[in-house]
Amino acid sequence: MLSKSFFKINNIQKRIVFYIVAITVPMFIVSLYLIQDFVSERLEKSEYRQAQLLNLNTLKEIERFIGRTGSFTEKAAYMITANPEHFEKVLPYLKEHVKKDSSVFGSALALEPGILTSEPYCEYFYKRNGKIKQTSLLPPEYDYLHKSWYADVKKSKTPVWSEPYFDKGGGNIYMSTFSYPVKDLNNRFLGIVTADVALNTLSKAIQKLAGDKSNRVFLVSKQGFLLSSYDSTFNLKKTIFDYAGFLRSDELKKAGSDMVRGVSGVYKINLKDGNYTLYTMFIPETSWTIGILMKNSVLFEPLNKLKKKLLFIMLADILLILVMVLIVSNRLKKNVAREEKIKNEFILASRIQQQFLPEKSDVTTNNFSLSGVMKPAKEVGGDFYGYKIIEDKIMFYVGDVSGKGVPASLFMMASQMLIEDAIDEQFDPAYVLNKVNRKLSKISTTGMFATMIIGMLNLKNNEFTFSVAGHPPFIINSNGAVFSPVTRFAPPVATFGDFNYQNSSIILENNSTIIAFSDGVSEAENSKKELFGTEPVARILQDISGLTVSEIKERLLRNIQQFTAGAEQNDDITIVVVSSSVML
């Protein structure tokens, strides 16, 4: 469980919480909104496609119903065309089809007088009380010659579905008639074969296709008559416009106008019980239009559920962000305190290390001058230098410990203490290196080592004695000649405990200058990963007329700084410049 102190935050943490929340929460909300918007758009299109698919399936089902209903009339017409003198033979076929096909209420053979028969002829088979009845529909009681289902087909000589009508004297029901023309081989009109569909049967079949109870299916004729409607008070009695007026919906009136013109489309319909989407499709075979009115709350229910889930996820994630911010800020507070402590320890370590360096970086006497500097790459470094003067002799040293940071600084301080002790015992470079090497080899268990150069200048005779342990060679300007006298290789101290370091000596001309430095000078890198090298150091020594050792040192530092401009210092830099006489 979280303790009470967990929720106690200081001003810094408050600012952290504020900044994180101010940045992340809006970004998170915008991201969720974009995801929700993207998914919603896709899901909405998917729902529309499903609705259109339902409409299309309904349309296909109606087309199958209509096609199945009228298909036998075509076959009957071909039977008469093939054998017009025996047209009566088609009557049993019509009767049998009415009996077997539940979607067909009746079928008639109506002929044009004066061609196959001298008088009007119209035999009609229809269902009544489970039986197939036969009647003759003849003028004057039933003037089939002037009925639209006959007259329109006679005129066009093409199959036609009639507008809905009440067949008084025939089936005495609301029906629509599919009339197929009968022609002879010379394309002369002989009559028609009909298939009558009871509209209440068609309506029931259509309403079963609606699926969900909230869906409302309409079948509208080209005159706007409701052939099928879910509302029994309007079904087969009123037009789509009457129903739109009843619902007080101008949108439905507009859709109705498009439906009677055979225009398919999608419409937004707002009713008292909610918002709906109306999908309409024209049926070319009949000139009718099918429409499905779907309630948006049902149509877009998956979309609404998704929005609620995304809202819940957003709120939960915002709460989680706040909790995580508190956790992170508390950890950050501890880390800041820890880092502050470490920083203070580094500062203290740096101060202690500085105390091991010479108290005076510049020293000048009548016989010589010396200037030194150590610039650590980090808070603490592994480079060191020092000097000691006894009578007419000056001994100086430069060292570089392997590694960086605190371990290197500790090893550096140990090395420098051992050097100082050894110098106090004997003023001899090789002696100092040998003693330091033996001591460090015993105490070094981490594989650390140090490179060193120790030089001693005898001011009486200008003899320079030195011993080098794996350190970059120093460079001398002796009366204008620039060179390095180091020819003997020796390993760094603490690598071989029994190694015996030797001295080398050289007599310098008066006014000679020596530069000793660590590899932080020669291996200083610029932004192109190029090294500074030792040649620039030698070039500086070639023209030092009138310069003090401090000015020589500063010139070298400036050159290094210009070379490495834009690059981070990657190693400690140590420089010691010694002159055998005061430079004026």
How would you describe this structure to a colleague?
By secondary structure, the protein is an alpha+beta fold. The protein folds into 3 domains: 1-209 and 300-354, Beta-Lactamase (2-Layer Sandwich); 210-299, PAS domain (Beta-Lactamase, 2-Layer Sandwich), CATH 3.30.450.20; 357-579, PPM-type phosphatase domain (Phosphatase 2c, domain 1, 4-Layer Sandwich), CATH 3.60.40. It has 13 helices and 23 strands. Strands 1, 2, 3, 4, 5, 6 and 7 form a 7-stranded antiparallel sheet that branches. Strands 13-14-23-22-19-20 form a 6-stranded antiparallel sheet. Strand 10 and strand 11 (274-283) form a beta hairpin. Helix 5 (240-247) runs antiparallel to helix 6 (250-260) and helix 9 (405-425) crosses helix 10. The longest helix is centred in the first third of the chain and has 72 residues, at 11-82.
